[in-house]
Amino acid sequence: MAASASPDGAVTQRIVIENCALATVDAQDTEYATGHVVVAGNLIESVGAGKAPEGLPGVVRRVDGTGHLVTPGLVNTHHHFYQWLTRGLATDHNLFNWLVALYPTWARIDAPMLAAATQGSLGMMVKGGVTTAADHHYVFPRGSGDLVGAELAAAAEIGARITLARGSMDRSEKDGGLPPDFAVETTEGALLATEEAIDKHHDASFGSMVHIAAAPCSPFSVSTELMREGAELARRKGVRMHTHGSETVEEEKFCHELFGMGPTDYFESTGWLGDDVWMAHCVHMNDSDIAAFARTGTGVAHCPSSNARLAAGIARVPDMLAAGVPVGLGVDGTASNESGELHTELRNALLINRLGAHREAALNARKALRLGTYGGAQVLGRTAEIGSLEAGKLADLVLWKLDGLGHSSIADPVTALVFGPPAPVTLSLVGGRPVVEDNHLSNVDEDTLARTARAEAQRLARIAAGD
After folding, report:
1. pTM to 2 decimals?
2. Residue 267's Cα: distance from chain center in Å?
């Protein structure tokens, strides 16, 4: 195998992982009971059975993966990082009551709070195998500082890729919405700020660490004008579009009362269906809705734990997949999924969907893993870069430890990962750079993150209480 070199003539550095099980999640779902991965620079150079090729130049690290499974890095398609500061509140509420209870607190968030919440939320996911995460941030209180900049700087320290869906709200309580009046932006202000975030931060190049999406919050917190003009802005700028859709029966009723149509028809009327769009939740979808998503290539972020926590219902994921709808997994905000971990969503997606109409045929372990990897990459528009272990793709991968007590009697490694207890992460790479080593974050001190998040959560609570 020929050595690659950088422009200055230096040989590319390589990492070799071998003696491990491999689930590539490629188009053929290729797996190896014992195989290897070679990482060259930021790319996967080779994946295959048995030992890595002999004589590779520039090998700086060899990892013995005995007792481990290597998969693509997990891709989280929906989150609200700021909610790390309000976990464990309003625990017995449905969505609308939960929002009403928490909006007054969220509306007091500022840049230092969001930075701490970002590192808590993202750090927890990365420890659990996430290498790319989408965050939908839509709360921009007046005088709160540069929230987009604070979030991206905090995420860069963790080392994961991020799609920041720059959200917005312009329908407050006085207009029949749920957020307090001081927590929303004007329509013009939201559009200008979204465009500024795209121009300043979006990087469309191969291997980019930051994507920006246009993301008005939801039909019940956003005007029709903002939805339509937000779609026009996103397509003019060539970025993806994200919002909440069909999450609860109350939302369905709201759309019929206000717009004279259901959520999917409303989205289509405002330009919000297409292969550059993905929606969070999509719990209450009829056959016509699913067909519309399939016809247009509109993606879905399935958030099973949050849907259960808020009693929203069971999304029809098997029917969506059968129709050809792109589906990925999402943690959702940690005020509605306090664990904050995506690898637990592999298991919960499988179990919760088996409570639906398809029962035991709904999902299996490998379909669940695909949702959390390739499916997420598809929803975020990054399948050429991430989501499967293939030569030429970015070296975003996870080495899961499966030889401990918790997985000791499950012979199949993919079944062990999905059905078993959360597996420790021995090594996680993003573009060939470690972000987790021996189940600890590589780039930041976890104890410091915990102390900072705790202090900022307490400060937010005092401010919200008027102290």
Report:
1. 0.96
2. 22
